[in-house]
Amino acid sequence: xxxxxxxxxxxxxxxxxxxxxxxxxxxxxARLLARARAxxxxxxxxxxxxxxxxxxxxxxxxxxxxxxxxxxALRLLDRPARLRSRPSAPPLxxxxxxxxxxxxxxxxxxxxxxxxxxxxxEPACLSLAGRDRYRRALWLTHAAARAxxxxxxxxxxxxxxxxxxxxxxxxxxxxxxxxxxxARGLGMADILAVNAAPGYSExxxxxxxxxxxxxxxxxxxxxxxxxxxxxxxxxxxxxxFHMSYLRDNPHGIVYEPxxxxxxxx
Length: 265
Hints:
Layout: E1 7-10, E2 14-18, H1 27-35, E3 38-42, E4 48-53, E5 56-59, H2 70-78, H3 81-84, H4 97-103, H5 108-115, E6 125-131, E7 137-140, H6 142-157, E8 163-166, H7 171-183, H8 188-194, E9 208-212, H9 227-235, E10 241-243, E11 259-262
């Protein structure tokens, strides 16, 4: 991976994935994904829109040109690779965040004031940091990806196994979390105790990681009793990672010993 870095290219509506990382959902998709150099993926539902093949772009939906944001994604795809994958590219504009909160019945100004959380922009480019526990591609900012790899290797030398539960999440993905939980009958107050509102999660910025260890359930307070957590408390700061949500934190988020954010060395 270090010899052949992979990048996720991000637009407001569409992600551009490198070939070979996405799971096929049908035989037709499998044939296209096996040959794809890149895949355009709709952010709000994960639908595959088009595959860039050696012979050109192959649409995977009808009326590709009518997809919101397709022109911006195609312009990005047409740029030289060295320009498309700049880790220092400016973040995406903070668009439609108020609309997302209003869809959930939340007042944007009131939420920000009550929690003290700031809006978090999505990076325009993310680096592949390996795989998470579920064998999904793990995306982080370039600096956070390198720091995570160094920290995980250091832990192994100390006999500690760390695995990632999740990394970067888009605004649309966060909105989907809320909508799925509401569909299961959970109240908004209960959801907000464990998930920041769309646009306010540290995961949006590509620097936050939910960390676990083999044999331990994901995102549970019991993680604090593991050797992995003890190691993180003593060593994570040296790699630029810090635990964000301590007990009785002022943001109204439950204690999360698994949630660590890269803030620089």
